[in-house]
Amino acid sequence: MKKVSVFLVIFLTWVFVVYTPAFGQKSKFIVSGYMDWTYSWQKGKAGTFDLFHFNPIFLFQIEDKLLARAEVEYEHGGGEIVLEYAQLDWFLHDYVTISGGKFLVPFGVFNNKLHPSWISKVPGRPLANDQVVPVGWSEAGVMASGGISISGYSKINYALYLVNGLEGAEGDNIRDLRKEGDDRDIINNNKAVGGRLGIVPIKEIEIGASAYSGKYDDVASPKLSLNLYGVDAEFCYKEFLELRGEFNQADQEITDLSAPDSVGFLVKRGYYAQAALKLSPLAVSLLNPVEVVVRFSGQNFPGKAADKREVSPGVNYYVTNTGIIRLFYRLNLEDEAYKVKNNQIILQYAMGF
Q: Which of 166, 255, 297, 347 sits between 20 and 30 A of 214, alpha carbons compared?
């Protein structure tokens, strides 16, 4: 896997650099991406450095209406190397873009917009976007997306997609239903449909709703359904105050072995709320690069042992617009009978390039 992924990066770079001039002056090739290293410490355990991500992103503007893009994910210093996404976008109309390939699933906003470490305000994922919506989540398929202006800053944006379904054994953790390969749905036609509708009533606010429906079992029968629902909201004021949150629910069908003729669902819920305040309005030069952030997230699963919450207060220091030093304390909160001493101190440097 590693050799194939490294070869893919080298090959893509060579093709784009060598052949870009052949497409004329309209062709453009850009390499961007992000990286981060993290030091985390937990009581009773050794502190650990980790080069969590080094993710180059390749953008190739073939012509005005065609864009090819891909991201290769190097995690844990190259210990895990995968193709995060690779897609071709066809700008069919001012209001419609058709995408094909492997793309980040537009469920809520965290998965395909906020998960890069230099964009996310807090180290690590909120629980709602880890075990319920399995970030980072990309699938092979086709998608239509776009936006329609209503008046002034008011607009509606949308995304509709048809993708390969998640796949795994009955009752598996949703995060484990993701597969790295795209040659799925061979035994069972598990194609899934979904979409997100976002409404921007004024410049500072966006509200969205998402849905996903498909099958997830990897056997010919029974065909068990997996339905996801979500709502998200954000409020951004003058680039120094940001409030956002999401609520996600999964209804995962299972067969009740104690009553063979009955069918039930595992209902899994996750949520988070986050506030970020930059101190630049105080007009104190020392505090201009400082941002104070706190995030609360939780998950409610069948069985008390799986219920969790986390509170992450911390500070971001902007070395540059895309380079951030972070210091956070993560309180991991389980129900009283299942408490574990697993709070963490996290120091991170994240950078977009």
A: 297
